[in-house]
Amino acid sequence: MLFARARSSSSVDPETFRLHICSLHDARTSVHDDASAVQSITRSQSRATSGSRTDLSTDEEPDSKVKHQQSSRSAKVKKSVRETLGNAASAGQGTVSRSRSAGPETIAAKQGTIRMKNINRFSNFVKSGMEAFVLSSTKMTTKPEERHEIILTDKGPEWRAITQPYTCIVDKPKKESKLKGLKSFIAYSVTSSLSGIQVSRRYKHFDWLHEQMSAKYLLIPIPPLPEKQVAGRYEEDLIEHRKNILQIWVNKVCRHPVLSKSDVWIHFLTCTDEKQWKSGKRKAEKDEYIGGNFLHCVTVPAQSLDSNRVEHQVEGFSRVVRSLDDSVRVMYDRVTETHKRMAGPYRSNWQKMAAAIAGLGHSFELDSSPTNQSVTAALKETAHIFHKIGDEHEESAKRDLDPLLDCLYSYKGLLAGMPDMVNVHKSAMSKLRENERLSMEGKVSSAEAERIRSRVDAVSYAVLAEMEFQHRERGEDFKQMMGAYLEKQAAFYDGIGKQLAALATLFKNA
Amino acid sequence: MLFARARSSSSVDPETFRLHICSLHDARTSVHDDASAVQSITRSQSRATSGSRTDLSTDEEPDSKVKHQQSSRSAKVKKSVRETLGNAASAGQGTVSRSRSAGPETIAAKQGTIRMKNINRFSNFVKSGMEAFVLSSTKMTTKPEERHEIILTDKGPEWRAITQPYTCIVDKPKKESKLKGLKSFIAYSVTSSLSGIQVSRRYKHFDWLHEQMSAKYLLIPIPPLPEKQVAGRYEEDLIEHRKNILQIWVNKVCRHPVLSKSDVWIHFLTCTDEKQWKSGKRKAEKDEYIGGNFLHCVTVPAQSLDSNRVEHQVEGFSRVVRSLDDSVRVMYDRVTETHKRMAGPYRSNWQKMAAAIAGLGHSFELDSSPTNQSVTAALKETAHIFHKIGDEHEESAKRDLDPLLDCLYSYKGLLAGMPDMVNVHKSAMSKLRENERLSMEGKVSSAEAERIRSRVDAVSYAVLAEMEFQHRERGEDFKQMMGAYLEKQAAFYDGIGKQLAALATLFKNA
Fold first, then answer.
1. Distances B430 to A114, A375, B62, B116, B286 between C-alpha atoms, Å
2. Which InterPro entries match (chains A, B) (predicted)?
3. What was the ipTM of the complex prediction?
4. Distinct helix (H) and strand (E) counts, chain B
5. What angle do CA A363, A365, A370 make, to 5 degrees?
6. Topology of domain A307-508, per CATH?
7. B469 near B377, Cβ under 8 Å?
8. Contact B323 A504 (CB under 8 A)
9. Does A328 sit within 8 Å of B379, measured CB to CB?
10. What confidence tens digit (pLDDT) does each residue in B320-331 have?
11. Considering the entire predicted model, what is its pTM?
């Protein structure tokens, strides 16, 4: 039932849709034949946005604060490792690439590259397979299906733009149940503008998708899902709220040049058959091209990069992210506070004023002389309108501030994913420095050194392209959210002004 | 110097102005030749508005609450008696009418009327000379100068309307000093539209005038002066505030058909010569036609009144006054609270929001890429405008709410004077009942009984006329104050709406 709600127009085969999306790009993708052991450990999810200030320190230079954060973070990661490995085992899919640990016995590497291995085997750089990508030369067992390209423009490296943009609508949240009503859940319809296919998805499907994408696109911050709610998750307000954040989520995925072409996303978006859904899920979970290996799916310009310049650019990006992290948090708190005030004391002040004016009107009514009848009527109307304006404050909070808060929530979560990207890049850069030193000392061959340099360049290209995209998106995001918020608030205050002006006229003519 | 600031056009002789005002009315005033001993005790000033709920109980039926209030009130009155008597003595003007007590030895009255005397010699009814007016038949020593008339319209008894309305402007509060700077004070210019004469008056002059008018016009509530301030009375805000309340005060006096023709008011309004001022003051202080005797200046319709109907009407008025007293107090408190909020948390919320948006703008600025420059500029402008809107909340509180508060303050003070009028009338009505009883028992002559009935009718006519005026004024007052307040607030919210709309456009075009 969950998979059967395809529209009449949804006869489009999902595979056709996927091919269509892929054909959007002139897929001059380089296919790496290398394979390496990849640990299927997901990044700490970007959804965890509520905590403390995002940390942009490198893995290599942990200060005391970082140590503290890492200890709690690594606990999470370990749990995630257990779960993921457990998953693979229970699925009976213990493939070499996913179950093997990244120990030295599996990699045929030279003395130099072995020495370059990070001591911290729990760092994101190692776990994600990025170290393996940079240092090893083993072959991949399959061919990558997704292909992406980074091009050079006058603004620097960029992801090749989406040729045919599309959108998705998350709508019609609906309480459904299975096991004869024993289990109930909310299902949302997700409809893509390109295929017209409508699928029905639950939060747990989004959550699974988020996990897959976070694992696969190490250098791309994945927007956050709505926070997992247990209590009151069938309340109308909360359902609407989650729907809005899911909508922002799919908007962001659709706009991203890489994510919008993601295999797992396309599967999520188009699969209406339960059997196909399950097999597609298994396939995505076995994907070799995740983490560091995703870079095998990316064609980068041949031109080598100036590592000092790249480091400088990434450092600048880091500063922007740190600063934004603070300001978005402050803004979020302030809008939350304003929301509370509008629905609370502001509303009640208008309504207490309404009661005071109604009291005057009542006193006026005691005088039965006809002289003051129009003033009495004007007072009563004023009391009525003031009460209404009070209610409008609460409505405005919901209508004008909730969407702003949802956007800020999403942006906050996106920012929380950026330090991972920066830190992985910093680790790659430190491997590059080490490679240069070992190369000078003659401890790695020049072919090997060149291969490592080019692999680190691929990492840098991806990071630079993503930075460029995030800069651009940020402008667009804030343009949209501030524009919409201000427009709605303008209409709100304009409405109050107009209502008060009408009341003033009432008294003038009384 | 205080009296020398007449405009060039102020060559109009004050006496001419007075005659002019008097000629506004077709002075068919009945002149009573009766005279009685009048105690020159002023009513507890209506300015004392801050206290507890106005008490409308009669003098005759004091409940426990009334007793409590009266004890504190009578202390005030006693003080006032001492002061006034002291004044008269020090002025060497111990005239019979003012210095003599209202003891029975001064009045040639029959057994019946003596018996009718109130036991409570401190009641307003007795002190003001109203009892003497109703019961005695002694002659007045002088002829009344002011003449007023009550006419019958289809709405009932009314004060004859002002034929040629005029206005007064209180302006230019200015710090002045005398005794070579030893004493400093604020002087206001008061300019009448009818004569164009501009006089300079201090608060203490208004206070003196208020006292005289309160004593003279027992059945007319006198609007309150601004509260006496000692600390900070030279601060600009306070001076402006007092000026505004003084302006409301003179407006109300100018609009009143009796007060606007008052001798003492005309003297206050026109006298620019210090000698004349002092002699006019002495003359006003010696005025015999104050309190109960004021009714000798009033022509009332010959038609006798239905006492039951009058009592019912006054009771209705009482109810309105009691109810208004509560509602105006609630309204005053609510507007005061709103004032505080607008200048406090509302303002600060806009400005904290401004700071949050400025923070976003700052973070955007760290990214030196030109892509987001227009969004950065829009954020900075938004922060600037939000801060400005915050300040506008404080300005709006001052501009829109202060005048409303001043009007409510004045109205509250006016209401506080109304129970006096009602209570005096109730005492007069109880004298009427007693008179009827004694008359039936043959204890007063029918001529005497008729005289008393007609005197009580005069009191009723004055009260009914004043009630009619206060009903009408109330409508006008609230029409004006609510209209002005709503119009200004409408403009305020409209302004916010317009500014936000302009910002929204800025983001749309970014």
1. 115, 35, 14, 9, 30
2. AH/BAR_dom_sf, PX_dom, PX_dom_sf, Sorting_nexin_WASP-bd-dom
3. 0.81
4. 15, 6
5. 135
6. Substrate Binding Domain Of Dnak; Chain:A; Domain 2 (1.20.1270)
7. no
8. no
9. no
10. 999 999 999 999
11. 0.81
